[in-house]
Amino acid sequence: MTELQFAPLAPPLKPLLDKFYRAHRSSMRAPNGARVWVARRQEILAALCLTAVDDGHWLTGLLVAPGERRHGLASRLVEQALARTPGPVWLFCHPDLVGFYQRLDFAPATRLPAALAERLARYQRSKALVALASPEART
After folding, report:
1. Which domains does the chain have, with CATH numbers?
2. Quick check: pTM over 0.85?
3. What's the gap between Cα 39 and its chain centre?
4. Which of 14, 38, 82, 98 would suit a FRET pair with 72, their CA atoms being 20 to 30 Å apart?
5. What confidence tens digit (pLDDT) does each residue in 117-130 have?
């Protein structure tokens, strides 16, 4: 079996991520300018996007292929990506996922960059979301 790799996806390969999302019936897409991280053997097994915002990044699009879930792949991918991404990181998640992110040292965001605060307010009009921040974003 091929070794599991965690690495940024080269920009010309971005269509592979959109194909991965579609294959798993997700409406997620890689935002323009986002740095895409994947866990893969030969095919993509999990992915996330980090988009630059203010002095940090906004984490979106975390998805693990259904057959690969419950093996720690999402945690490992987030840890690998954040270890090589300087600065604070913010994310929005459904309240049911707060415990998962807290295990990765995220906590409720007390401050958000203006662009994210505006986006969160719009999103919260139609769905329940919680803003979380990495330790660097809480200092």
Report:
1. 5-138 (3.40.630.30)
2. yes
3. 12
4. 14
5. 999 999 999 999 99
